[in-house]
Amino acid sequence: MTSVVLGGSGLVGGELLKVIGSATALVRRPLTAPAGVVVSVVDFANLPPGALSASDLYCCLGTTIAKAGGQAAFRAVDYDLPLALARKASSEGARRLFLVTANGANARSSVFYNRVKGELEEAVSALGFATVHILRPSLLLGARNESRPAEAVAQRLAPFLSPLMVGPLRRYRPIEAAAVARAMVALAAGSETGVRVHENERLLELADSVR
C-alpha cells in the first residue's frame, strides 16, 4: 500500500505522520516529518500529474470559519479543496479514502459548519473509491500551532468533564488528535469496502485497539 497525507501540518495530520510508518505528505510549507515520511511542498491549485497517485488518501484538511475569514473562505478550504483533491486522487488510482470531518456532520444541518462537513462526506462518497472511511471526532485535544481561544478553554475543562461523559454522552467526549490518528491506522489495517462512517465513540475504541 502507498499513502498520501493531506493536512500534515495540522493537529490530526501531524499525529498521523508519527504513526503511519511511510507516506508522502503534501504540504504548502516545509515541515519536519518522522523517518519514512516524504514531505513534498506543493501548490494545491497546480498539482503535477501523479502527485496523488497512491492506493490510500488520508485527508486531514480543515480550518474554522473565524480563521478562514468567513463562510465562503471556510467552504473553499473545507469543501472545495478536499473534494477536488479526492477527485484527482480517485482519477489517479487511489482505492481508499480516509476523511476526517466532525461530530455532527450532516448535509441537511441548519448549522453551516456541520452542513459543509456533511456535504463533503456525501460528495466524496460518490467519487468511486472502493472504500471511504469517514471519521467524525468530537472536540480535538492536542497542541496546536495556532491560537483557538474557545478550544483552549474547552481543553482545560476536558480532564474534568470527560470522565462524566459516558453512555450516549460518550459521542461528545473530547478526543486526543493522536487517538484519531491511531484510529485511522487501525482502519487502514482492515479490509472493509464501501462507505463507512465512524462516530466519536467508535474512534475511541479503535484508538485503544492499537495502543
Shape: globular
The unreliable regions are none
Helical coverage, percent range = 25-40%
Described by strand count, sense and barrel closure, the largest sheet is: 7 strands, parallel
Summarize this entry quickly.
The protein has helices at residues 11-19, 65-68, 71-91, 112-125, 149-161, 177-188, 200-209; strands at 3-6, 23-27, 37-41, 56-59, 96-100, 131-136, 140-141, 175-176, 194-199. With 211 residues, the chain is of the alpha/beta class.
Describe the secondary-structure layout.
Layout: E1 3-6, H1 11-19, E2 23-27, E3 37-41, E4 56-59, H2 65-68, H3 71-91, E5 96-100, H4 112-125, E6 131-136, E7 140-141, H5 149-161, E8 175-176, H6 177-188, E9 194-199, H7 200-209
Parallel strand pairs: 1-2, 1-4, 2-3, 4-5, 5-6, 6-9, 7-8
Helix pairs in contact: 1-6, 3-4, 6-7
Account of the 3D structure:
The protein has 211 residues and is of the alpha/beta class. It has a single domain (3-209), classed as 3-Layer(aba) Sandwich (Rossmann fold), CATH 3.40.50.720. It contains seven helices and nine strands.
